[in-house]
Design brief:
3-stranded mixed β-sheet, 186 residues, mainly alpha
């Protein structure tokens, strides 16, 4: 499938079809910043996952955080996690990379299921990755663990939906997760 066919409206529709009713959660694009806001804070019936502008990749990334967050975390703005903006110190960037392994591994799986290119995000434009190769290795290792051990039910539902819609397939193919796709080999 052509990457240009990956519009954010399609991603929103697929997510909302899967979870708007069952999880009272909606995906919303065209936001200046990504953010998760529970319904109690919004004063609305639905929880909201906001992603940046109309970027398909941003939507996949925010969905991966939501899929990983347990019930208690989904009752808090941004799941109750800290966020340190661009320009992190080396110590802050190291911590960021540690907590991003699981969501970025799940995002890679979502991207492959949707036939969309995945790119690691260090989310630090004014800084540099502390250990780019190590981070890439850890994300790849986590992908392999998810493939071997499975993912939670919300993640599995999305993977199945994406595979069916974007690839007309029933299962992921391990060959899609070649470590060399991530680069960072130095």
């Amino acid at each position: 499938m052509n990457v240009q066919s990956h519009c954010s409206d399609g991603l929103i529709s697929l997510f909302n079809l899967c979870f708007k009713e069952s999880e009272q959660t909606e995906l919303i694009g065209n936001n200046p910043e990504p953010e998760y806001v529970p319904n109690t804070v919004r004063g609305e019936a639905l929880h909201a996952i906001f992603f940046t502008k109309d970027y398909f990749a941003s939507g996949l990334h925010e969905i991966s955080h939501w899929c990983i967050a347990g019930y208690e975390r989904r009752q808090k703005v941004d799941y109750g996690y800290w966020y340190c903006p661009d320009g992190r110190t080396e110590e802050q960037q190291t911590l960021f990379e540690q907590v991003e392994v699981e969501p970025q591994a799940l995002e890679w799986i979502f991207a492959e299921a949707a036939a969309f290119p995945f790119r690691l995000s260090f989310d630090n434009l004014n800084g540099k990755p502390v250990d780019a190769k190590g981070f890439a290795d850890r994300v790849h290792k986590q992908v392999l663990a998810y493939l071997e051990n499975g993912v939670n039910s919300r993640s599995a539902k999305l993977i199945s939906t994406f595979l069916n819609f974007y690839r007309n397939k029933d299962a992921l193919e391990p060959a899609w997760f070649d470590r060399s796709k991530l680069g960072y080999t130095e």
